[in-house]
Amino acid sequence: MLDVHGLNKTYEGHGRTVEALRDLTFTVGEGELVCLVGPSGCGKTTLLKCIAGLMSPTRGEVSLSGRTVDGPPPGMAVVFQEYGRSLFPWMRVRDNVDLPLRHKKLAKAERRRLVDESLEAVGLADAHDAYPWQLSGGMQQRVAIARAVASQPQVLLMDEPFAAVDAQTRADLEDLVRDLWHRLGVTILFVTHDIDEAVYLGERVLMLSSSPTVVREDLAIDLPDARDQLSTRSSPRFAELRARVYSQIQHAKNPTGAPAAGAPVH
Amino acid sequence: MSATVAEPRAGGVAPPVRRRRAPAARSVALGAAGLLGFALLLEVVPRVGLVDRASLPPTSEILRALVDELGVPAFWTALGETMRAWALGLAIASVAAVLVGLVLGSVAGLRAATASTVEFLRPIPSVALIPLAVLLYGTDIRSTLLLVVYACFWQVLVQVVSGVADVDPVAADTARSYGLGPLARIRYVVWPTALPYVMTGLRLAAAVALVLAITVELITGAPGLGSEIALAQSGGAVALTYALVLVTGLIGVVVNLAFRAVERRALSWHPSVRGEVVT
Amino acid sequence: MRAGDALRRTLLVVALPAVLLTAWWVLSASSTNIYAPPLSQIVEQFRLVWLEGGRFTADVLPSLGRLAAGYALAVALGVGLGVALGSSRTARQVFEPLLELFRAVPAPVLIPVLILLTGIGTTQKVLVIASGCIWPVLLNTVEGVRATDGVLSDTCRSYGITGSARLRHLVLRSASPQIVTGMRQALSIAVILMVISEMFASDNGIGYAVLDFQRSFAIPEMWSGILLLGVLGVLLSLLFRVFEGRVLGWYAGLRRAQRDG
Predict the structure, then answer these.
(1) A91 contacts on C by Cβ (under 8 Å)
(2) What is the pTM of this model?
(3) What is the ipTM of this complex?
(4) Which of A74, A86, A151 is the closest to C152 by Cβ?
(5) Quick one: which of A170, B181, C81, C179 has the most CB atoms within 10 Å?
(6) C116 → closest Cβ in B55, B115, B211
(7) For residue range A38-77, what is the model confidence (pLDDT) as tens digits?
């Protein structure tokens, strides 16, 4: 579904060249839930923007279902970290969710159905008429997710969506993501700095090195498919996987450690 | 519409190269190009005949008329009159507004009681008073002053009141608990908070004062640049009319730049940048 | 307590104006100063001249018509140019010094110029009004457009909202608080210029009438004209506030939410 090949992003300016992303190569298969983790400043957001078509890479390419991404492709939806700034404050919740659908030229009844269903799916069936700023942070992020889901994307990109939310809300939202993933079968690429979250959510965890960034490791998460905050997080296998990711990230922070190009490891 | 792609927010070792502000030289060059382009346009259009040359002379003629005029003593007298009315009116209005504003803002309840009156009087166009001014003072400088003081007073007052209202209540309480009397409180707590607002008010009032002074002169014939322009136009000196209009524009720009510079200096210590109060 | 609160608030609003008006009425009642006629006389003249006399159709309506035309022109041009300039840094750099110079010329000073270019008549007056009140709209629009949020912009791009849809849903809406501020300032300026344009080379209009009264020493009538302008200013200001409430209801709510944390 989503192919990233040899992605490189280099910034030039005033006699200095900074290589943010060196050589990123990985694949996300259809219907997978893949998490991306990396140390601070490793360019996760840059990577996500390149994949989303909001930024053009210097070298390499991103392709969605075989077609090269050159500008935001229609089959992709992005959920940003700053929920407060990604929702239109002058529109009510239902209009916010409806807006992208208006440009897909769908019938009015169809649009209303999608809006209703997606708001219901994120647990905000009663919030249609509210303005975003009347809602709490967690609810605003749910609206953003509903909006993304309503546009029926092939791939859902999430850029540290729960970083700015409190821990308990984050737990609920993580479960929401898995729930939506199960129900809709959508492909999800989830970027986060939270290692626990990455292991809890993902089928695979891609670990990034620090800048200049490459994929250090591609770890398959063999936790059971039905996960919950209490039992999964206290299982021994979770602890092992988490430890593995944690140590990789710690090594990644050390710039002299030789980065390994994505070789899947158990 | 080109959307600037947002560079990634720096976090740790993220690429520090952000889109730097274009060097000042480029800005100046582009701006100069804009001005020159317009001057050229103004030169060509009348010559080519798109607009009647008698109503819009080319730039070169206007500039020549300007240079000629600079050698005429009457011009400098008129300029002096305008600037005198401007300076005097601005000073009177500002002092009055600051005093009234400090009182209004500091005495609790007074602000609320006077709010409706202020809101009613503010939108009254100052020019409505022009006939009154003429009645009272004829074509004397005092008619100009009346208008200038009236308009600038409101401009500065609104800003001062907002400035006083912005005083941090914690700071005010601290001052009071240290036994500072009202005058001392004004000096150490209220004034520094209000100062940015006052400076903004002064800058805006300076522009208003200039506009009003010239307008009153234009309409009533009181001595100054405004009446010179009216004379030039009615006397058929077309190029001179445009030249004088250009002069008023230049003065306005200079006044604005001067006040911005003063504002920057006076507030160089101020941590925050106070925007203009939304009136 | 609620009734008491409302009463107190009404009192605050009404008290001082009522006191001032009463004082004016009483103090001027026995006035023999020709420049300051009794308030009762002014009010009487107000009724006679503006409400019952033919001046309403002969002067007030044309004035208001020109005001509306000049204001509408200024808003349309100001927003249009403002969006163009706000979206392009290069355009801003090229035009900024030129615009600063234009802006510094007081609009009334353009009256002689516009007379040269367009003669005396409605066009000239409408242009005078527009050329003065375009500036707050233009400058505020530029500021508002410049401040369009980056995340919101990215969101639009990623959902394929571009071009005129982006302009309508993102740029204009996001800049609307600033634009409305500019429009409010422009309205005051428009009223002033409407009056001035009629004081210079005109044969009808409120400004013309007031100046005419002054020249013929019809003092109470002159004052009634001033009163009319004051009332007009206040009415327009109130009307604008209603407009602002409708258009920026969301903004008031947003600011309140941000303030309360």
Answers:
(1) 250
(2) 0.80
(3) 0.83
(4) A86
(5) C179
(6) B55
(7) 887 778 888 989 999 998 899 898 999 888 888 898 889 9
